C-alpha cells in the first residue's frame, strides 16, 4: 500500500499534464495537427467562410434558391440533349450509332446510371426528380433528389484548380460569373469513366460545358442553354436549351443507390451492355 | 376484359393511345429491356417488398399467364411517384396473395436470384382493390 500511492500519484499527475497540454492547444494548432487530412486550396477561402461571404459584391440579378423540376410537359424525351445532335466523330460516332440502333431494337445500351454510376453533367440536371438549389454570394449548391447528387458552382472569382491537383468528378468543377441578366457557368474536369450523355455517348477529358442561366416568368421558370464541346467526340458546339419549373411546395428526400439495388431491378441486370469494366 | 359497347371500345383506344404516348423512354435508367407491348399476368404470393427510393420492387412466387411459373421480380418506379398513384407502404406485405400485371423482359434472362423479371403495370391486391392498369394492357412506367 505504501508503494502503491506514489506510483498512482505520478500517473495521475502525468495524465493531468497531458490533458492540460491537449486542452491548451488552440483551434489553430489542432487544425494544423489535422491539416494533412483536410483538403487544401491555398490562397482561396472556402465558399462558406464568413470572410468570403462578407466581401462586397454587386447584387446578383436573380436568386436561384428554391426547388426545381425539369419541364418535360412537351414530351418525356425532353430529358435528352438531342436531337439535334452535333456531327460526331471517331469512336464517339460509332458509339452514338450503336446507341441509336439499340434504342430502335428495344435493347438497353450503356445503362451506367442503372448500375449506380453517377449521372454526372449534363444528365443529372434532367433526371425526373426535383433539384434543390441554394444560392449564396460565393456559390450555388445544387442537390438533385436523384441519388442526392451534389453539385457546386463557385461564384467567388476563384481560378480552376491546378490540373495536376484536381480530382475529376462526374459533375466536374464549375465556376460561374454574371453577365448582364445571365449567370454563365463553365465546367471542366469531368470524370469520363462510364459517364455518358443521352444513349451511350461518351465524353473525353477535353469535355467542357457552358451553361447560360436565366430566370423567366417572374422567377417561376429557370432556363439553361447548354453549350457542350469535346474535340475528341464531336465537331463544334452541341447546344440545347432546357427549362425547369419552380416547385417550392415540395422538398427533396434521401435517395441512395444501394449495393443490392440491381438484385431487385430486372432492367438494370439486363442493361449492362457496353459498360467499361 | 369484355368490351360491351362501341363507346367503351373508343374510350379504351383513346386511353391506350394516351398511355403509349406517355410511356416511358427512360428515367433513372433505360426501360427498353422490357417489352411494353405484352403483359404477363402473375398470380402468386408476395415474398419480398422493397419500398425505397430510387425504385420500389417486390417479388412474388406463383403461376404466370404469358410467362413461366415461379419467382418473379417486379420492378417499379420511385415510391414518391407510386404514392401519387394511390400506393402506400402498406399496400402489399409478404404473404399477400395478389395478381400482378407486368411487362416482361424482351430477353427473358434469369436474374441473380433465379427469378424472371417484369416491369409493374398494375396489381389486384389481397382485398381485390386494384392499382395501376389491370385490363391486361399497357406499358409500365419507370418514372
Quick overview of this protein structure:
The complex is a heterodimer of chains A (277) and B (143). Chain A is an alpha+beta fold and 277 residues long.
What report would you give on this structure?
- The complex is a heterodimer of chains A (277) and B (143).
- Chain A has helices at residues 4-24, 27-34, 50-53, 90-104, 266-270, and strands spanning 66-70, 131-135, 139-144, 150-154, 173-179, 182-188, 196-197, 201-202, 208-216, 221-229, 238-246.
- Chain A is of the alpha+beta class.
- Chain A has 2 domains: 4-37; 66-270, no CATH class.
- A 9-stranded mixed β-barrel of chain A has the order 1-2-3-4-5-6-9-10-11.
- The longest helix of chain A is centred in the N-terminal third of the chain and has 21 residues, at 4-24.
- Chain A is globular and about 85 Å long.
- In chain A, 30% of the residues are buried.
- The mean pLDDT of chain A is 92.
- With 143 residues, chain B is α+β, with helices and mostly antiparallel strands.
- Chain B has a single domain (31-132), classed as OB fold (Dihydrolipoamide Acetyltransferase, E2P) (Beta Barrel).
- Chain B contains 2 helices and 6 strands.
- Chain B has a 5-stranded mixed β-barrel with strand order 1-2-3-5-4.
- In chain B, strand 2 and strand 3 (70-75) form a beta hairpin.
- Chain B is globular.
- The chains are: A alpha+beta (277), B alpha+beta (143).
- The interface between A and B is large, with 37 and 38 residues.
Amino acid at each position: 500500500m505504501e508503494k502503491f500511492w506514489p506510483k498512482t500519484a505520478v500517473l495521475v499527475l502525468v495524465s493531468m499534464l497531458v490533458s492540460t497540454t491537449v486542452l491548451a492547444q488552440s483551434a489553430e494548432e489542432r487544425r494544423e495537427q489535422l491539416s494533412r487530412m483536410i483538403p487544401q486550396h491555398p490562397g482561396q477561402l472556402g465558399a462558406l467562410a464568413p470572410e468570403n461571404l462578407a466581401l462586397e459584391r454587386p447584387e446578383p440579378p436573380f436568386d436561384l434558391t428554391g426547388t426545381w423540376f425539369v419541364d418535360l410537359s412537351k414530351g418525356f424525351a425532353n430529358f435528352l440533349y438531342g436531337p439535334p445532335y452535333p456531327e460526331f466523330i471517331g469512336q464517339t460516332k460509332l458509339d452514338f450509332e450503336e446507341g441509336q440502333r439499340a434504342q430502335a431494337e428495344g435493347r438497353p445500351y450503356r445503362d451506367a446510371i442503372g448500375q449506380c454510376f453517377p449521372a454526372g453533367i449534363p444528365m443529372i440536371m434532367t433526371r425526373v426528380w426535383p433539384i434543390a438549389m441554394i444560392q449564396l454570394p460565393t456559390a450555388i449548391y445544387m442537390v438533385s433528389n436523384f441519388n442526392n447528387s451534389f453539385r457546386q458552382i463557385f461564384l467567388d472569382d476563384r481560378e480552376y484548380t491546378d490540373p495536376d491537383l484536381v480530382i475529376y468528378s462526374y459533375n466536374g468543377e464549375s465556376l460561374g460569373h454574371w453577365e448582364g441578366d445571365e449567370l454563365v457557368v463553365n465546367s471542366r474536369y469531368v470524370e469520363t469513366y462510364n459517364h455518358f450523355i443521352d444513349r451511350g455517348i461518351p465524353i473525353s477529358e477535353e469535355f467542357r460545358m457552358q451553361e447560360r442561366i436565366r430566370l423567366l416568368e417572374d422567377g417561376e421558370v429557370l432556363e439553361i442553354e447548354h453549350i457542350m464541346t469535346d474535340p475528341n467526340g464531336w465537331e463544334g458546339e452541341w447546344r440545347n436549351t432546357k427549362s425547369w419549373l419552380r416547385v417550392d411546395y415540395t422538398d427533396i428526400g434521401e435517395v441512395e443507390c444501394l449495393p443490392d439495388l440491381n438484385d431487385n431491378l430486372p432492367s438494370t441486370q439486363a442493361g449492362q451492355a457496353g459498360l467499361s469494366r | 376484359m369484355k368490351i360491351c359497347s362501341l363507346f367503351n371500345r373508343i374510350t379504351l383506344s383513346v386511353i391506350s393511345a394516351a398511355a403509349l404516348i406517355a410511356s416511358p423512354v427512360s428515367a433513372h435508367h433505360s426501360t427498353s429491356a422490357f417489352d411494353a407491348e405484352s403483359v404477363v399476368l402473375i398470380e402468386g404470393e408476395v415474398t419480398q417488398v422493397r419500398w425505397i427510393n430510387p425504385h420500389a420492387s417486390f417479388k412474388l412466387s406463383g403461376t404466370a399467364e404469358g410467362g413461366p411459373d415461379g419467382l418473379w421480380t417486379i420492378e417499379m418506379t420511385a415510391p414518391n411517384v407510386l404514392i401519387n398513384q394511390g400506393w402506400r407502404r402498406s399496400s402489399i406485405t409478404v404473404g399477400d396473395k395478389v395478381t400482378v400485371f407486368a411487362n416482361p423482359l424482351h430477353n427473358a434472362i434469369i436474374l441473380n436470384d433465379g427469378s424472371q423479371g417484369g416491369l409493374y403495370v398494375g396489381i389486384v391486391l389481397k382485398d381485390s382493390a386494384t392499382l395501376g392498369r389491370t385490363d391486361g394492357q399497357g406499358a409500365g412506367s419507370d418514372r
